[in-house]
Structure formats: structure tokens, C-alpha cells
Amino acid sequence: MTGRNGTAVVAKRVDEGIAETEEINELARAAGYTVVGEVTQSRTEDPALCLGEGKADELAALVAETEATTVVFDNRLGPYQTYNLGNKLPDGVEVMDRFRLILEIFGQRAQTKKAQLQVELAELRYELPRAEAKASLAKRDERPGFMGLGEYDESRERDIKTRISRITDELERIERTESHRRSQRRESGFDLVALAGYTNAGKSTLLRRLAADLDLDENVDRHPDLETTAESEDRLFTTLGTTTRRAEFDRRDVLVTDTVGFVSDLPHWLVESFKSTLSEVYQADLVLLVVDVSEPIEEIREKLVTCHDTLYERNEAPIVTVLNKIDQVDGEELERKRSALSALAPNPVAISAKEGENIAALWDRVDAELPTWRRERLVLPMNDETMSVVSWVHDHARVDDVDYGEQVVIDFEARPSIIEQARSKAGELATAEPG
Fold first, then answer.
1. CA 120, CA 400: separation in Å to the nearest integer?
2. Helix/strand/coil for 8
3. Per-residue pLDDT averaged across 368-381, rounded?
4. Which residues on neighbouring strands pair with residue 376, listed in sequence order?
5. Cβ-count burial 331-359 (b if 16+ within 10 Å, e if not)
6. Taking the CB of residue 372, how many other CB atoms lie within 10 A of it?
7. Cβ atoms of residues 37 and 71 within 8 Å
């Protein structure tokens, strides 16, 4: 889905220092806007306009000059700041803050039912405090309809809460289904690896690289939910939902899932709306935290801290930091950043997903970090039912040797859960034997 294809002026206020606008410009372009100007200011927040009065007038003049259709603030705007700014701007110009813009991008990217529900939930959680504020002010002012407030807003508030409850219930049902599916995958002998990290760190490119030589059709019947494509465009929020692909190497069958990218300065209510997507991370056997090593050290450090705060909240799996895009830095810069980030990213793996550099080293690390396989030997009676068990072991484990004599002896390696299932199947065969 494309964006609005409108024009936008970007605005940003910081309490002190320099107002950086690179990310908000990228976000606006990701939503389909053409950025035609920007206004920045370093000062304390004005309760009525966010910007100071004079700077707000400057913004209005720039909007009129450029004929922009939208003003995008890289700040969080209250409902009355939005209203007051709108009164200063030419008629028909929309004012949106950072989070409204992110929700617009999410809405454009949402293709699955789950993603669409998560976007709607986030939009409702964004709107709820605004509806509550309008209804509260209308009661206090005792003028129903003042600034569009009054009884309508009380009804709107109730409707939002009802819809939040309904969507939350539906997402919980979807999560139960997906949790069952993950359990089935694990019982089938798959190791689950999740890719996490900020947008544009290269997660989707890495997913494609890890599954580059894979014939995806071979397991469609057994795993119909697996996606056969994963975009790797250089734009924010390419991956809103999750994309899972199978990657087979050596003795392991691995399912790798690309998850929604983090964005800096996200409020709790927005992260909470997408927590069911993050469950793919929380319930993985291993998390690969992908970082764009070409970015400035301080920016990387801030992003790692945010990712760790989110991932370690409920995640018990090991986390391996992947320093991606080493094709964009020289060896000296890479070592300097590796050293500076060692406290947050001990023993990282440095790769270039785009060029395929050091992918083998990454696989070695994945193999080392995933749950340890165990060796097992089963002695089975020679009958037709035994052949189906042998076939099952071949499908779910790495078989080293099968000896067909008076009895069938099979030596193999597998995850502990697969070994337990194989023992159970062997026990059923023994119980069914006559005599």
C-alpha cells in the first residue's frame, strides 16, 4: 500500500541542544510524504503550541509558502496543542505528531489480520486519552459541543474502550493459536530463531541471506504458515508482521522469524499494542539482535539499551548481537565500535548480510547457542509399525546409523524433546509386541 503522496513540513522542538530531524524525515518519507521544509527550535515546551508563539508563526508562514498539506511534529502533541496549531495554519492543513505518523505507516504496512488488529488497537490507545480529555473538559466547562466536545465525546470514549476490549480478546485468541503452532514446530524438531532490532538494521536482508539456497516448497504441507518471501527494501517498517522461513544447515532444521523493527522513543501504549508480535521473540530458542554498525556509536548504544530493556523483560533465550553492514565501515572503525560496545554486546558476530560476508561464522554461533542435541540409541522390534517410527526419526533428527537385523537399532542425535518423543514411540511398540 502506498502513502498519501502529500507534501509535509517537519517540525521539532527539543529542550536544549540541536534538534536532529533525520529520523522524522525518514518516517515522513516512509509514509509517502514529500518533505518540503522543516522548522526546529530549542526551548522549553509551550503548553499551548509546543513551539513558542513566534516559531509557530514561522511554521505557519512556511506552510503557506510551500503549500504543504501536512505538518509532522517529531514531538508528542496533546489534543489542545494540535487544535491550537491547526488554528494557526492555513485551512485544510493536517497536524500530526510522531506517534500519529508511525500509526499511519503501520496502517499502510498491515497486510495480515493480526497486524491490522494491532494497528487498530494502537490507534484506539492513542485516541483514548484525547477522548477522555475532551469529555472531561466539556463537563467542567458545562458547554456541550464546545470545541466539538460534550455528549458525543462521552459516547466516543465508551466506544473506544469497548473496541479496545474486543480487539484485545481477539488478539489473545490469535496468540493462543500461534503459540500452539510454535509448540508443534518445536515438537517437530525445529529450532526457533528470531531476528530483532531497529528498522533498517538489515533484518529482512539477513533473513533472505540465511534462507538463500532453500527450496521453500518442500515443507508447505507440514508448515503452511511459512512465508515464501521477505522484502529487504531500504525503508522503514517493511516488516510489520512476522515472516518465517526455514533454513537447514548441518544437522539442524531452523525456523528463522523476522519481526517488526524497533523505532526510537516509542511510548509504552504503542509497544504494548504489538506485544503479540514480540511473542515471536520471547518464545524463540535464540534471538539475533541485528545492529547497523555503520551508525554512530552513541546511536548504536542507545538502540542496544532500548532493545535490551524490551527483550530482557520476558525473554529467557540467549541473545547474540549481530553487527551488520560491515561492508560500510573499515576494519579500524569496526574494531573501535566493537570495543566501545563490548559491555552491551559481548562477543558479537560481525557480518554483511547484503554481501554475504561472515555468514558461515554466524551459523557457527547459532549452532553453538541453540539447545544442545543429545545422542540416543533405540532398539526396536522388526515389524511394519517400526518402519514408521524409523521414518519419523529420520524426519526429526540426524540419524547416524540404522542396523536392520532381528531387531532394528537406530543411532541418532536430536533435541531432548525429540528424544523423549522417540522413546515414547519405542515404548508403545514394545507394549504392542505379543508375548
1. 51
2. strand
3. 86
4. 412
5. eeebeebbeebeebbeebbbbbbbeeebb
6. 8
7. no
- For residue range 274-304, what is the model confidence (pLDDT) as tens digits? 655 566 666 788 889 999 999 999 989 988 8
Assigned C-alpha cell, 329: 565501515
User: How far apart (Å, rounded) are the C-alpha atoms in residues 306 and 308?
Assistant: 5
Packed helices 275-282 and 151-187: angle between N→C axes, nearest 10 degrees: 20
Q: DSSP secondary structure string, 154-195?
A: HHHHHHHHHHHHHHHHHHHHHHHHHHHHHHHHHHTTEEEEEE
The answer for residues whose C-beta is within 8 angstroms of residue 99's C-beta and 6 or more apart is 76, 126, 266, 267, 270
User: DSSP string spanning 50-70?
Assistant: BS-HHHHHHHHHHHHHHT-SE
Report residue 253: phi and psi, to 5°. -105, 120
Q: What is the largest CA-CA distance in the chain?
A: 96
Per-residue cell: 172:
489473545
Q: What is the pTM of this model?
A: 0.59
Q: What values do phi and psi take at 52, rounded to 5?
A: -70, 165
CA angle 62, 64, 69 (to 5 degrees): 100
